[in-house]
Amino acid sequence: MGDEQRDWPERLHVVTGKGGTGKSTVAAALALGLAAGGRRTLLVEVEGRQGIAQLFGLEPLPYAERRVAVTSGGGEVRALAVDPEEALLEYLAMFYKLGAAGRALRKVGAIDFATTIAPGLRDVLLTGKVKEATTRTADGRRAYDAVVLDAPPTGRVGRFLNVTEETARLVKVGPIKTQSEGVAKLLRSPMTAVHVVTLLEEMPVQETLDAIAELTALKIPVGRIVVNGARPPLLAGGRVTKAEIKRGLTAAGLPAGPATVTQLAGEAQAHLTRRELEESLRMELAEVGRPTIELPLLPDGVDRTTLDQLAGLLMRGRS
Q1: 123: pLDDT strictly greater than 70
Q2: Domains of the chain and CATH, by start
Q3: Would the pTM count as exceeding 0.90?
């Protein structure tokens, strides 16, 4: 393991965040960063959005582990879009030997029926597949050096991750109890960390704080807070006067009429007010006591180049 990966020692990295904070982008960048130097990582999504395929410019992913990227030093990122129906068929074949019979159940709609009336079962199957990939071995070594899960948003991540604990408590015997206990144990072990992605805005920060409190109460390890879309300060001082703006415009040979100066003064004040709010939110996040990384705003969108840039920043642990 390289020096940079030592800062991310866990084997299962769960990435969550309020919708719109860029959690899928951060998950993809983290998978790339952890694969550098000849390592192999698996990037998993469970929400059926095919977000991984879009980020890497690929066709929709099947329910199979496919290589989506190679990294420096011969590293490799594979991806898996977990489908609840396929996961249930796999589960039935593995534990109940219902190969063809399981496929027949799909034809009559029984699979969809089962995951609809028992949504907890759906989450058990999804987390169970993630656990299987995390602990899988091949030829005496782990199949993946790390698994990155693009998890549901902060509003439901606690329920999603805790469903196996609830299932293990309710189901008295059988394979699903054993599987649920195994997943619950992994999620509460040092092998797992839940990283929370946020923006420096009031609602995402509040959801971040709520999610961390919920995960802590559930005894699920919290990793890092990733502040996404951070903007550099545009003004060095705490206040800009109209006179200063006029002098600056004049020195630059630009129009410095009253209307222009007033408009720029208003924009400067709005920027400073925004910065004050952001600093206040940073302080709230700092009080949680978790390591924090800031990633820059990407005004031109996300592509493989920017994903690699974010991967490097994540691995170095700083913006």
Answers
A1: yes
A2: 5-233+282-316 (3.40.50.300)
A3: no
